[in-house]
Sequence to fold (105 residues):
Amino acid sequence: MLGRKPDVEVVFEFIGTRKTPALNGYRPDHLIKDDYLTCGVHNYYNIEEMPPNGTSKGTITFITPEVYPSCLWIGKRINIQEGSKVIGYATIIKILNSVLDNTIL
Fold:
């Protein structure tokens, strides 16, 4: 994933279930589809660390997005998870990798 361009731009919303801030480069799981969790690297805009109950815009670079094509759209809200525990949400505001865009036929 290093050196790859981000796949999506999002609004991150953490809900206070983490005990410590998440630093840029944090790699939690994301519930991309109802039955599919995948890892992704977070980059937060204008901050180095996201507070446990913080909100910020930023990007996610997913691992192997070609495995789950056409599963995202603008406005979709995906869970950010540590294992089975939901720690926040990412709302898609821009799709940067067309492989993931379900509006492209």
